[in-house]
Amino acid sequence: MRRFGHFAVGVAQGSAEMFSAFESGGPMWTGHGPRVETQDVRFDESFAEPPVVHVSLSMWDIDRNANQRADIQAVNITRQGFALQFRTWGDTRVARVRASWMAVGPVRHEEDWDLE
To answer: What CATH code is carried by the domain that includes residue 72?
Structure first.
C-alpha cells in the first residue's frame, strides 16, 4: 500500500489514441517491424512525488484472424508525467488502440510553505 503522508491527494485522468496503423500500413497492422508504441503524457499540474498510474485499453481494433495479444503499461513515471507503452507480438495484428489512464498521488496543499 502506498501512503502519502501529510500531503493532499490529487487525481488526474485522461485518454489518448496511441496509434492508427491500418491506414498507413504500420508495423502494428502488418506484423513486421517494431511492435511497441510509446506516447508521452504530461500532467496538467505536477505531483509532489511520482504518482501511482493505472492504465487500461479503452478501445482496440484488432484482426480476428490471429491471436489477441496485448501488453499496456505506464513506464518512466515522474512528478510531471509518464509514458504510455503498448506492445504486441507474434501474429497479432492491431489496427488502432486508445488508452485511458488515471494518476493518484500526493500534491502540495495550497497552504504549504516553500522554504527553499
So the answer is: 2.60.40.2080
Confirm whether 20 is domain-assigned: yes
With H, G, I as helix, E, B as strand and everything else as coil, classify residue 49.
coil
d(CA 115, CA 111): 12
Q: What is the reported pTM?
A: 0.87
Share of the chain above pLDDT 70, in %: 95
Q: Domain span at residue 85?
A: 14-105
Query: pLDDT (tens digit, 9 = 90+) per residue, 39-68?
Result: 999 999 999 999 999 999 999 999 888 888
* 101 within some domain: yes
Rounded Cα gap, residues 2 and 5, in angstroms: 9
Give 89's Cβ-side CA count (13 Å radius).
2
